[in-house]
Amino acid sequence: MDSTGHSPQSLTWKENKWIRFLVTCVIAVLGGFFFQLIHMPIPWLLGSMVFVLIGSKLWRGISFYWPAQIRNTGMIIIGYTLGLSFTASTLVQIGQQLPTMILFTALLLLCAGGIAFVVSKISGIPYPTILMGSIPGGLSQMVSLAEEMKSIDLTVVTFLQVSRLIMIMFSVPLLIFSPLFHVTGSHSAAISDAAGASGYAALFPHIWLFAAVCILLAVVGQKIKFPTAFLLGPMIGTILLNLSGYEGHSLPPLVLEFSQLMMGSYIGLLLKPENLKNKVKIVLLALLNGVALIGCSIILSLLLEQLHDITLATSFLSLSPGGMDQMAFIAKEVNGDLSVITSYQLFRTLFIFFAVPPLLRLIFRSMLMGKERAH
């Protein structure tokens, strides 16, 4: 026995990565089955996420484990699926909508900035910290940037970003299936029928070429620090192969459900509320921030629907302040236009990656100089 009352054998068992992964996997699968049983949207993403999140907090005896490589594999599968939706005609349509993409991305970011200002005034937390926690769709970029700046509370930024993603994944499917969006049923059955008709055999032999290119571009993208490389690399590779004349086929439903579980389990372990100071206050601020941002997205999507010949569901998913991968899952459920949704989400991701960090540095520098002059 050691000082904690555990034998060395039990400690070894609980620290074994394979055992920890197996326990996490079982909990995630149970969550997927349960959410499917109660007819929740995207059950394998939401179910695995919720069960792993709750299980990891309740079961203190073992530390849950989910390798990043599995999450990355799930993102490669999603990237391939997104890439299949792009054809030469959709690229022309995207070119025509480019001015609208710029306008609505700017409007959404301005809304995020305004909401962050109000939340900062209410909470007393410095504006730069709230702002970096409010930028939609930029979790990895904002956390990396926050690490560079000593005055910013990294824990608060991470919590705001991750809690917004979790709110989006729950609220967006429920909103999409509400009377507001006039979606009467899930499109999952149609997807299953289409994929089942072609089956696994239709994937071959081209799937080997698509797999090799997707993996290669994911690894290269990571090396050159491309944003969400394991999603965008495979997507770009699939688009290029499609335009070159190679025909890619939709993956079977089982593979897509598996990719949801790969993503959901990883996200479920991201949120660590035990690291927060003033937990209740920060949780309430995160809820306020998330609800306000979703409200702004709905208003902007109503405007986008009027400007272009797209459904309200497609416009909302295009502007929703979540991740491209989660929006793609929901888009498949409601028969949304994947190419339009992905284009808007991709443009915002790239804009946040390349343009927002220098802009934020400029804003924060100006604020700092203003404070120095005031003193």
From TrEMBL:
Keywords: Membrane, Monooxygenase, Oxidoreductase, Transmembrane, Transmembrane helix. One of its GO terms (biological process) is regulation of gene expression. The chain crosses the membrane at residues 21-38, 44-62, 74-95, 101-119, 154-177, 197-219, 283-304, 346-364. Pfam families: AbrB (PF05145). It comes from the Bacteria. GO terms for molecular function: monooxygenase activity. GO terms for cellular component: membrane. InterPro entries: AbrB_dup, AbrB_fam. This is Monooxygenase. It comes from Paenibacillus radicis.
